[in-house]
Amino acid sequence: TGAYAGDRAVTRAELATIFARYAEVKGLSTTTGDLSAYADADAVADWAADGMAVAVGSGILSGKPGSRLDPNGTALRAELATILLNFSKLTPAEETEGLTLNTYLEQSEYDWFRTGKTSYTIQGKMVSAPTEVYNNLEDVHYTAEPNGQDVVLKGTGGEEWVTGLEKVMKTYTKADGSALTAEDFVADTYIDLKTKAEPDTNYAMFIPADVQVIVETSWGDVLTANRPQVPHGEGDYLVCAVGEDGQPNLADVWVVNGATFPNTYDMTNAA
């Protein structure tokens, strides 16, 4: 409903969903249970069904006497204590060995499609004191310094990262399309930034969320598409420039998170 309701009691279904999702974010090994064995399984709301199934199957949440889940009952402190104890016993899921880029390109049922960055709005600010920034889409921490150069950017998915002022002014404009200057940035206050559209400058290929691909970029970074413990939407995308022959330039390939790709790149030609 748009309300935090921080002083409202939490239901057992809500608590189960919180811990099931947290286990996924932390990359812990979980099992999906069968709720149909419980007498009140039909009382579990659709939005809570997955979380309850994981919580029950993984031993995070136990049923009540009479083979009941009591999903809409208030979670008691004693129940939370038991849930915390059970949650602490979960172990990390086994890491899936990622495919190399060439192997994925050989095996993939998806094709490259022509794309390019669209014009979209993000936000940026400078800071008045050293500020910790976390990019939840890449699981990377940054520290922005009050040096007149570090700009904290907030993307379309709420992810944050730090970029140098010079690059920001080359890549973005003000919301009205006019050029940026250093004076436009006020410490600790976000301003709207508009990206410069770059139509038909790239190729992209989809990677389903259950497939990991290791990509060595031309600038020396090693990126993992669909890396565990971060959100990816339906899956990440490989992106590359258009070669002189008009085909994908496979010498320069990188990864764009699937949670933001549809909001930042042209999807017109996507299969």
Note the main attributes of this structure.
271 residues; alpha+beta; 21% helix; four-stranded antiparallel β-sheet; single chain; five-stranded antiparallel β-sheet
Characterization of the model:
With 271 residues, the chain is α+β, with helices and mostly antiparallel strands. It has six helices and 14 strands. The strands form four sheets. A five-stranded antiparallel sheet has the order 7-6-3-9-8, with helices on one face. Strands 2-10-13-14 form a four-stranded antiparallel sheet, with no helix packed on it. A three-stranded mixed sheet has the order 1-11-12. A hairpin with a 5-residue loop joins β11 and β12. The longest helix has 14 residues. The chain is globular, with a radius of gyration of 23 Å. 26% of the residues are buried. The model has no long low-confidence stretch (mean pLDDT 92).
Write the layout of secondary structure elements.
Elements: H1 12-25, H2 46-57, H3 77-88, E1 99-100, H4 101-107, E2 113-117, E3 121-125, E4 131-135, E5 140-144, E6 150-154, E7 160-164, H5 165-171, E8 172-174, E9 191-195, E10 198-208, E11 213-216, E12 222-225, E13 235-242, E14 248-256, H6 261-264
Parallel strand pairs: 1-11
Antiparallel strand pairs: 2-10, 3-6, 3-9, 4-5, 6-7, 8-9, 10-13, 11-12, 13-14
